[in-house]
Design brief:
- This protein is of the alpha+beta class.
- It has a domain of 121 residues: Alpha-Beta Plaits (2-Layer Sandwich), CATH 3.30.70.1290.
- It is built from 5 helices and 4 strands; from the N terminus they run E-H-E-E-H-H-E-H-H.
- A 4-stranded antiparallel sheet has the order 2-3-1-4, with helices on both faces.
- Helix 1 packs antiparallel against helix 2.
- The protein is globular.
- 33% of the residues are buried.
């Protein structure tokens, strides 16, 4: 199964290396809290260890995530679906059980967005559009890797990309980051 979008973006090569963006519905700043960023990374690590996912790069912004992913098993769409489903459950659990000043509002918004779909879910956190772009050349890979790592710099959060913790930039610069990745070589 692959995801198809109105704009024509689709994961056609399930083994291919892809740049993707995962966006929170309504551009809600869910990842302004470390607890949710940590859940996100934990979910990615789980997929890496248990679902044959290669994580070449990532950056977590306040309301979206950019990644370069590849499936060693040829099931990228399935892994993406499972990642979004599992992380949604974990986010909702944390919203309900962790100290959260925005609890009622967040739950209301995620219910509102779920009610606007035909998926029969109680909560919807992720938009359906991941804008997957298959990386087909070394030059394109370098452009996307730079784009990912420069996001926090462009946002004015850090001066140097490797100083932003929730990114793979420090892994490429210093050899170690907040989580293990699969370095990109073309």
């Amino acid at each position: 199964m692959s995801y198809e979008y109105a704009d024509g973006y689709k994961i056609r090569n399930q083994f291919g290396l892809h740049f993707m963006t995962f966006t929170v519905v309504g551009w809600i700043d869910l990842f302004s809290r470390a607890v949710y960023r940590d859940i996100l990374l934990k979910s990615m690590q789980y997929c890496r260890k248990n679902k044959a996912l290669s994580i070449g790069a990532f950056v977590v912004m306040t309301n979206h995530v950019h990644v370069i992913w590849q499936s060693k098993s040829g099931k990228l769409s399935d892994t993406l679906r499972d990642f979004k489903s599992y992380s949604t459950k974990e986010f909702i659990h944390a919203i309900m059980n962790e100290p959260e000043s925005r609890r009622d509002w967040l739950l209301h918004m995620f219910r509102f967005h779920a009610n606007r779909t035909e998926q029969n879910k109680e909560f919807k956190i992720w938009t359906g559009d991941n804008h997957p772009e298959e990386i087909s050349s070394e030059a394109f890979m370098k452009v996307k890797l730079n784009y990912i790592h420069q996001n926090p710099v462009r946002a004015g959060w850090v001066t140097n990309a490797e100083d932003y913790i929730y990114s793979s930039a420090s892994s490429y610069t210093n050899g170690k980051g907040i989580m293990e990745i699969d370095f990109l070589y073309y």
